[in-house]
């Protein structure tokens, strides 16, 4: 809904005489949740405008992205002789994905190229809306005619070309393949950027800079525009979000950086590097390490027990680091959720979190009339939507967590993910609030809602 409202107000702000395009609005409000839709969204953004001029460059980026994904897909370790064959990369499955993406792109993302030779008016219909023929933006009829489509054979040519080049340099060393494929892919993106298909670097700060970031379609949390298939999780200073593989592949491996810490000198999407936030460093879980999970139960004021245990563990470790540093995922319920946010998002020590927790229990848990009274308490709780006064708890939470500066929950430079269980609405339906917005999907997931 916010996307639809933003688009509607933007249409009013422009003062255009053209009617509101509900089809375009529906397309922009849809969240891609499969590889096909990822590719279709990528084509829609990169080929907007000068479609024919940018087509080869767009296909080249798509081809190198497919190769990059095929070689280093998690959970797949094909033999070297299979990897080094182009037919093993651009196989029937990938061809089918590309065909579906092209059909979706042509149906909803490409404007017909017909131009009236007399008036110079261009047809505004897409393939899906071309049943009536060529039409003006006002809806007036121009001429009968069909929509002309194309293909992405250039993507397969790119796969063959890159693999042939790399074969001449290395044999079957997967790490060398990874480095060289990433290098070719980055070069393809830079070439597409020169043609206007990708955003250009914006190294000047100011109000216009912030407005440009808000309107940047590539600053998306649904698709990683560094590789087109990864899960975007890490927000760069320029507001573009990339996946973990792109974070690893585009690190120049600066000396002195510890294992699990990666540094970027510029953005792979826009090429920006002149802002004070660069170079950008972030810690992620090392590839060979296990996943460390902490589950925190609720229990009202009794939640102090788990804090005492965590404080004791923190002392036994003896490294002077907050206990949340040692976990990759922290999940909390009720008061356990408060503890999870304290040690996971705000990086408080267990002792600091205990102090804040005591103040929350003292000032925030103000029960409503009769809800804690013996015998009649259950009747009072049944008649009310909550046991405690919401305003008092909200005020106590704001006071407890307002000391540090405001923290951007999504895209943090932090390997720890935090989830807090909750209920949604008055029906008490269970839900989860997460520090990484990842809904459940069958294909590589997209970012749509906190609730999963």
TrEMBL record:
UniProt GO BP: arachidonate metabolic process; glycerolipid metabolic process; lipid catabolic process
Keyword Ligase: no
Motif (GXGXXG): 298-303
Record region (Disordered): 193-214, 423-452
Residue ranges constituting the PNPLA domain according to the UniProt record: 294-452
Statement: the UniProt record of this protein carries the keyword Metal-binding: yes
Record protein name field: PNPLA domain-containing protein
Organism from which the protein derives: Arthrobotrys oligospora (strain ATCC 24927 / CBS 115.81 / DSM 1491)
């Amino acid at each position: 809904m916010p996307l639809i409202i933003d688009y509607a107000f933007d249409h009013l702000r422009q003062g255009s005489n053209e009617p509101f395009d509900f089809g375009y609005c529906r397309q922009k409000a849809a969240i891609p949740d499969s590889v096909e839709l990822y590719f279709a969204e990528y084509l829609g953004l990169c080929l907007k405008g000068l479609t024919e001029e940018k087509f080869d460059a767009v296909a080249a980026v798509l081809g190198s992205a497919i190769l990059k994904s095929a070689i280093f897909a998690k959970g797949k370790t094909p033999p070297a002789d299979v990897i080094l064959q182009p037919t093993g990369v651009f196989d029937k499955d990938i061809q089918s994905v590309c065909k579906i993406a092209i059909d979706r792109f042509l149906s909803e993302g490409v404007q017909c190229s017909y131009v009236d030779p007399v008036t110079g008016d261009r047809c505004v219909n897409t393939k899906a809306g071309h049943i009536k023929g060529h039409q003006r933006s006002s809806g007036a009829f121009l001429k009968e005619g069909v929509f002309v489509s194309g293909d992405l054979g250039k993507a397969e040519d790119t796969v063959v070309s890159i693999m042939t080049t790399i074969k001449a340099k290395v044999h079957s060393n997967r790490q060398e393949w990874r480095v060289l494929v990433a290098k070719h892919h980055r070069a393809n993106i830079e070439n597409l950027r020169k043609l206007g298909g990708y955003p250009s670097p914006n190294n000047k700060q100011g109000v216009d800079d912030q407005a440009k970031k808000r309107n940047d379609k590539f600053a998306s949390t649904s698709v990683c525009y560094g590789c087109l298939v990864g899960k975007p999780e890490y927000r760069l200073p320029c507001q573009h979000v990339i996946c973990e593989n792109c974070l690893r592949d585009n690190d120049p491996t600066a000396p002195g950086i510890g294992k699990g810490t990666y540094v970027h000198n510029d953005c792979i999407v826009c090429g920006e590097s002149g802002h004070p936030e660069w170079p950008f460093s972030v810690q992620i879980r090392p590839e060979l390490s296990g996943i460390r999970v902490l589950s925190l139960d609720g229990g009202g004021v009794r939640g102090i027990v788990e804090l005492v245990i965590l404080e004791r563990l923190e002392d036994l470790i003896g490294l002077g680091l907050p206990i949340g540093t040692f976990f990759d995922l922290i999940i909390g319920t009720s008061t356990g959720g408060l503890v999870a946010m304290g040690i996971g998002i705000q990086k408080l020590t267990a002792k600091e979190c205990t102090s804040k927790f005591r103040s929350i229990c003292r000032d925030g848990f103000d029960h409503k009339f009769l809800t804690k009274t013996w015998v009649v308490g259950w009747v009072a709780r049944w008649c009310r939507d909550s046991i405690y006064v919401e305003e008092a708890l909200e005020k106590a939470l704001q006071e407890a967590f307002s000391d540090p500066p405001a923290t951007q929950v999504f895209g943090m430079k932090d390997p720890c993910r935090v989830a807090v269980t909750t209920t949604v609405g008055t029906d008490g339906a269970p839900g989860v609030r997460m520090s990484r917005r990842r809904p459940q999907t069958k294909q590589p997931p997209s970012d749509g809602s906190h609730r999963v």
